[in-house]
Write the structure tokens for this entry.
Amino acid sequence: MHDTSPPAPSDRDDEYTLWIVKYGTRTAMRHELFLNYGLYGEPDGSASMDYFFWIARNRLRTIVIDTGFSTEAGDIRGRTMLIHPREALAALGVDPRTAETVILTHAHYDHVGNNALFPTSALVIAQREIDFWTGPLASKRQFAAFVDQTDIAGLIDAQQHGRLHAFRGSTSPAPGIEVLELGGHTPGMSVVSVQTNDGPALLASDTLHLYEQYEREMPFSGVTDLAAMYEAYSTIRTMLNGGITHLVSGHDPSTLSRFRASNRLPVWPARSAQPLRTTAAPHADAARAHRSTPQGSDGQL
Ligand SMILES: [Zn+2]
């Protein structure tokens, strides 16, 4: 048996306990998730996607990374919300009205919904992402399907009130946290590296919906720049070789099982039969989990 309690909160300003919060789920077919799935000559089948947001916290700071989908945006798309992010934040003792910083990895509906819950927070997002979703291509059907106009309006409102911290390339909104724009899935798609009290972690968000995308280089169906998506996999590989020890996917259902579950939290009442699980900072098993799977293997998925 291993210790299932989360590491003690760090005293250091640049080191965090990282929480992975699963708040939703869906079932899809593999051909819906992988771009041009027929190219692989593999049978179709059902696959799940889970929906997460993340919280990096130490004694001095609480950084929220992404804000989940809203009830309305999830319902329209047939997604199952297991717990409203507002309730999940409350259960974790995070008051969104006083959260200093919210990092938004990209502007899709399942990552920037509920941003109205954070009326005073600095919202950190790539400038390229804002430019695109307020520009002429955003209304094209293939792009517009992935965003909710209420959410975009919230970003514009934050911009008008000086709370939108748009960056180009990379930024460090807090000690021990780096946000790096990689593009591919969306024009300003960004990943977040977090120094945790169990080693450096990379929140890949939707540069890597599923570990299989990365391990087998099978791009996701939703893409704005395919070359950049492939390049993002290479960049992530380089980051892992350079010392990142924990890789956290954007939507892979195996994510929680790769990290240590917390026994300090109640099993929250979820809106489906499936109990919600929340994991604390990664532990040693996670370091094994992200090792590259040989081509052709079905890995752990
Ligand atoms: Zn997503």
User: Anything to note?
Assistant: Residues 226-241 form the longest helix (16 residues).
